[in-house]
Amino acid sequence: MSFETDKQDWPGESAILLVHGVGNAKRGDYGQLVAQVRAALGPEAQSFAVYRLMYDGINDWFAEKTQLATQLERALGFFSSRIDLPTVSNVMAEVVGDVLWPVLSQSARTVLREAYLAQLKQMVLDGIHAGVPARDQNLHIICHSLGCFHTYEALHAAAQFRSHALLPSTDQVRFRNVVFMASPVQLIRSVAESMGGLISKRWLATLDGDSLSVPGEVDLVTNEFIASIDRTVSIAGALDPVGGHFFRDKAAWAYMDIPGQESIIDSQDTLNINSPEELSQVLHSALREREPPDIRPNNPHSWSAYVDRHAEDIRQWFLA
Amino acid sequence: MVSRLTLLALLAFGALPSSAQGGIRDIVSAVEAGIEACRFDTVGTPHAERLIQEIAFLNTRFALSEPGPSALARWDQQQYLNRSLPDSDSITSSLDVIRQVANNQLADSLDSAIGKEGRREILQPLTDFHADLLHASLQQSLERIRKYEVKFGPNSARLNLLEVMLNMLLQSAPGFGPNENGDPGSFEVLAGYTTTYFTLDDGDVGLVAAGEIGLRRYMFGRGWGKRGFIGYIKPNHVSAGLYMGSTETGPLAWPWRDSPNYGAFMGWGGLKVAYTLEEENRLLISREFHVVPWLF
């Protein structure tokens, strides 16, 4: 599928870009997230244009060109003939491919970054066409999982290359809030560094410098550094390994720590039961309905759950 | 990153379509009006002083060489700029400073002096110029993505495991990975074993297995690589390389069991023709596809 930017009419002076993680960056996959974010913003949501970065099709190019799904299907077939091979292998190929190619392939990460930059340009242009110059635009980004990696790469490219017309000072394109949820950026940096020459460092901001950094531009008169982001927030779950925590222990080699960021660690539970009272309710309900009790493991990596837990924060940050 | 000088120059002299005239002259006029509206020339800060210097510089350049309509109609605007404005690098640097100061310190002063709406109105040419830059840059991005779709998208050649590894190794080599502008390299290594060559063997059509190694070149021009019949006339890639064919006909033969028939192959899209040095199985035709994905 060819890439298209998401175009929106601006009802006000604010816009949010949502950037999904692995495997589900298509139009329909964002439906629940858009609804949750709008619910979090309350009545003021009407003044926000909400954009979605739809780059899943580009990931599919690389997965299909290298025929990864077919190979995984063959490999899985050795283990079991009872699983739905085409479905499982397609899902696995999507997950593996979405992570592998942007890191290993210069072409994959270049085109994914270009798609992200195209979306940012579209967003700012839509605002200008609505009568809001870039200086007056309130831009926000919420990203999750591998979407955080693409966000980090795109914002650094936007601040580095003037031809994108997305500089924070010269072009006045600044982001009031960038909220990273379960960011694997440091994890990718650490793994890529340990792989040495296997990972080409060209066009990879994640590997630049001595540590992760804030994107920005230098004032041409005073040489002062002007950051692209006003507030950087990193939210990670205590049980979410993608965000750098392994069974509630923070791993410095895997936890993203950009200078100046606000860091929030979510306390997470393994099950959807959080207290003896809740357990009692669930068991009573099960007896009454004569059904198995609804006790399930929580998904520590769920974007929906992160947004749900921080709905009030999002409201405060984005409406400040 | 890419042709920024050309992009800015084309916009500055109105050589690209724009909804409003966002050229350099309009920017200079707008900034001068803004300076007057909030007495920015009296604040005495480094930013104010620098802004006034750069405005003076551009006014000097405009006085020396004003482009006429015939010059603006030239195809090669960059050549025109280099000839008539040898310091065009200085002009774009000056414009960067003007835009940065005008969008920040001057805009702050205007907000205080005449309010947000007044500032928006006075600095509208800068907004228009920014919109034109964004539009041109967006078109560049989309064109770049289109080229990646040609090379990696659904209509591109599928790769086997050996080709994935070889192309990964060569991705930093010129012509293979992204160039300094971020455009995809047009070349791709082609290597593998194929069983789908056909030849005439004693009047019968026979299958011939062969090893191939060569290069594929992708055609990024619009109009190439379309689906359907036109895709055969103008495919999205061509290829050429060394052919090493089995001396026996029949599928799954191993060309290197004995000395293979050496020759060359050329491909026009998915259609390939090979020609060998040996009399036997001299001319062969093949269709590019993988019998066993990721292998051959």
What does this molecule look like?
With about 325 residues, chain A is an alpha/beta fold. Helices cover about 40% and strands about 15% of the residues of chain A. Chain A is built from ten helices and ten strands. Chain A has a six-stranded parallel beta sheet with strand order 2-1-3-4-7-10, with helices on both faces. Chain A has a two-stranded antiparallel sheet with strand order 5-6. Chain B is of the alpha+beta class. Helices cover about 45% and strands about 20% of the residues of chain B. Chain B is built from nine helices and six strands. Chain B has a six-stranded antiparallel β-barrel with strand order 1-2-3-4-5-6. In chain B, a hairpin with a 2-residue loop joins strand 1 and strand 2. Chain B is rod-shaped, with a radius of gyration of 30 Å. About 10% of the residues of chain B have low confidence. At the A-B interface, helix 2 and helix 5 of A face helix 3, helix 6, helix 7 and helix 8 of B.
Write the topology of this structure.
The complex is a heterodimer of chains A (320) and B (296).
Chain A: E1 14-19, H1 31-41, E2 48-52, H2 56-65, H3 68-79, H4 85-104, H5 106-129, E3 138-144, H6 146-160, E4 175-181, H7 185-194, E5 216-218, E6 225-227, E7 229-237, E8 245-246, E9 249-250, E10 262-266, H8 276-289, H9 303-309, H10 311-319
Parallel strand pairs in A: 1-2, 1-3, 3-4, 4-7, 7-10
Antiparallel strand pairs in A: 5-6, 8-9
Helix pairs in contact in A: 1-9, 1-10, 2-4, 3-4, 4-5, 5-6
Chain B: H1 4-12, H2 24-38, H3 46-64, H4 69-72, H5 77-84, H6 88-122, H7 124-152, H8 161-169, E1 187-201, E2 204-218, H9 229-233, E3 237-245, E4 261-268, E5 271-276, E6 283-287
Antiparallel strand pairs in B: 1-2, 1-6, 2-3, 3-4, 4-5, 5-6
